[in-house]
Amino acid sequence: MFYRRNWIAMTVVILGLAMFILVAQAERQDYEGITCSATTYNMVHSSPEVAINSYDAKGIRQSTHESKLFDNWTSHTIGVVKGVEGKWSWHAFSKTMGPDGEFIV
């Protein structure tokens, strides 16, 4: 009986604290820009049925929007491209970093 009462009390406390978790309100921000990058592709496997490539791209972004959001940010992307019987899929990781050290992964 005492054990069950402790579980109920702990559950009420956790649910009560969960009500005070702050939720961030996202705001839409439009931007446009130009990205210049250099990409290196490496053939991993090639046959008539399957083609697999890896790639490494590095570049810089210039903002053309008046807010200058993402102006002079650098990007580094690595990924894999797979083609099976004419159907292609791309999987990549990208890190974009601003001049002040802020980054997006």
Number of strands: 5
Tally of distinct domains: 1
Q: Biggest β-sheet: count, sense, barrel?
A: 5 strands, antiparallel
Number of helices: 1
Main β-sheet, spatial strand arrangement: 1-2-3-4-5
Low-confidence blocks of residues: none
Helix content: 10-25%
Strand content: over 45%
Structural class: alpha+beta
- Taking all Cα atoms into account, the compactness measure Rg is 24 Å
Gap from first CA to last CA: 50 Å
The best one-word shape is: flat
Q: Give helix and strand order, one letter per element, not per position.
A: HEEEEE
Average pLDDT level = 85
Structure characterization notes:
With 105 residues, the protein is of the alpha+beta class. The chain has one domain (27-104). It contains one helix and five strands; from the N terminus they run αβββββ. Strands 1-2-3-4-5 form a five-stranded antiparallel β-sheet, with no helix packed on it. Strand 1 (33-46) and strand 2 form a beta hairpin. The longest helix has 17 residues, at 2-18. It starts with a helix and ends with a strand. The relative contact order is 0.15. The model has no long low-confidence stretch (mean pLDDT 85).
Strand and helix map with partners:
Blueprint: H1 2-18, E1 33-46, E2 50-63, E3 73-84, E4 87-97, E5 103-104
Antiparallel strand pairs: 1-2, 2-3, 3-4, 4-5
